[in-house]
Structures are given as C-alpha cells and as structure tokens.
Amino acid sequence: MSFGMSYEAMKEELAGRLKPSRFRHSLGVAETAAVLAKRFGVDEEQARVAGLLHDCAREYRNEDMLAEAERREIPVGEVERAMPLLLHAYIGAKRVREIYQVDDAAVEQAIWRHTVGGAGMTELDKIIWFADMIEPGRDYPGVEELRQLAREASLDDMVLAGLSQSIRFVVAKGHLIHPDTVLARNELLLKKMR
After folding, report:
1. Is 61 helix (H, G, I), strand (E, B) or coil?
2. Sign of CA dihedral 144, 149, 155, 158
3. Count of the separate structural domains present in the chain
4. Contact yes or no for 97/103 (Cβ under 8 A)
5. Count of alpha carbons within 13 Å of 126, Cβ hemisphere only?
6. Helices 123-134 and 20-40: crossing angle, nearest 10°?
7. What ranges in the chain are assigned the alpha helix state H?
8. Domain range holding 75?
9. What is the three-class DSSP state of 3?
C-alpha cells in the first residue's frame, strides 16, 4: 500500500477536476466509508482514499468513456457499451495510479467494483459500494432504511439489502442489470443459505 500524495493533496486535485456537487458526494463517500471501515475493522485510510477517489473518472462525459476505457485496454462488455457511464468505475481504478499516485491493489479493486459490485467482493469493496449508496447527500426512497442497516446489520446483510434495492430500482427504470450485480447478490444469498 502506497499513497504518493497526501490525502489533502488528493482532495485538492480532485476538487479541480469534478463538478462541485460530485466533489461533495466524493467527500461524503470518503467519510461514510471511513466510519464503516472503523465499524468493521477495515483499514480506515484505504477506505477514506477509495471513497474519495471512487468517482475520479466522472470528469469525463459519458460519450467519452468508451474511448477512455479502450485507451487503457479495459475490457468493455455489451452492458457497458449500452451504458457507458458504468465505465467510470473501471477508468477511475486506473486513474488513481495515473493521477493520484495510489499504488494499492485493494483501493483500485474497490473503485473498480463500486458501481456494479461483483463476485468475491472484499470487505473494502463492500464498504465502498455501500458508502456510495448511503453517503449523507443521497436522498431517495429507502435510503434511511439502508443507513439504519449500516449502524446495526452485518456487512453482508447491508450489502445484500443494498444490492436487492439497487436491482429493484434498475428493473423499475427498465434498464439493463449488470451481470456482476447479480453475481454479487447471489453469492451473498448462497453464503447466507449455508
């Protein structure tokens, strides 16, 4: 684990690249992730950095995401081609090294998985994924119930509830469900059934 830049320097750099509302969201995810990391005994610095930088590729317009992904040789599936915004997670995972001098595979993976999840998620992956859903600036039906789970439930139960809610939301909108989201949810359900 190596952070070539101080947290304050990362914040300053990020503030210059993102819209103010996206930057505020990133600060909210960073602090929420640190609180969750403390609760679950996960490295708070990794959680704070991953939370801060999770949306660092949102400076790109949706129509530019495909070219940015291809430039970095990121595999692009059919779902990502149809919904290029999803690529910001994968591009961001690469940009943390390029711009923010973060040399930490766990942080990179947590950023990579923060949008759609995936099979075999680590505790840090789950914390960043969930912190993105419940940070203080989020306001949608059901967010308070998820925040309550963050205070009381196990990490797996929180994430399972979040994945279920996310899938219901995406289905209601008539959008594609990323296969990694289904894999993440099924894996947690199967673990619970054992």
Report:
1. coil
2. negative
3. 1
4. yes
5. 26
6. 130
7. 7-15, 20-40, 44-53, 62-71, 78-82, 87-98, 105-112, 123-134, 143-152, 155-173, 179-193
8. 2-193
9. strand
pTM equals 0.96
User: At 148, which CATH number?
Assistant: 1.10.3210.10
Q: What is the residue-level pLDDT of the chain in tens, covering all 194 positions?
A: 678 899 999 999 999 999 999 999 999 999 999 999 999 999 999 999 999 999 999 999 999 999 999 999 999 999 999 999 999 999 999 999 999 999 999 999 999 999 999 999 999 999 999 999 999 999 999 999 999 999 999 999 999 999 999 999 999 999 999 999 999 999 999 999 98
Phi and psi at residue 72, to the nearest 5°: -100, 10
- Report the half-sphere exposure of 143 (CA within 13 A, side-chain side): 11
Q: Give Cα 127 distance to the centre of its chain.
A: 8
Q: What would the two tokens of residue 44 be?
A: 């708070």
Task: Give the Cα separation of 172 and 180 in Å (integer).
Answer: 19
Report the phi/psi class of residue 60: left, alpha or beta, with left for phi > 0 and alpha for psi in -120 to 50.
beta
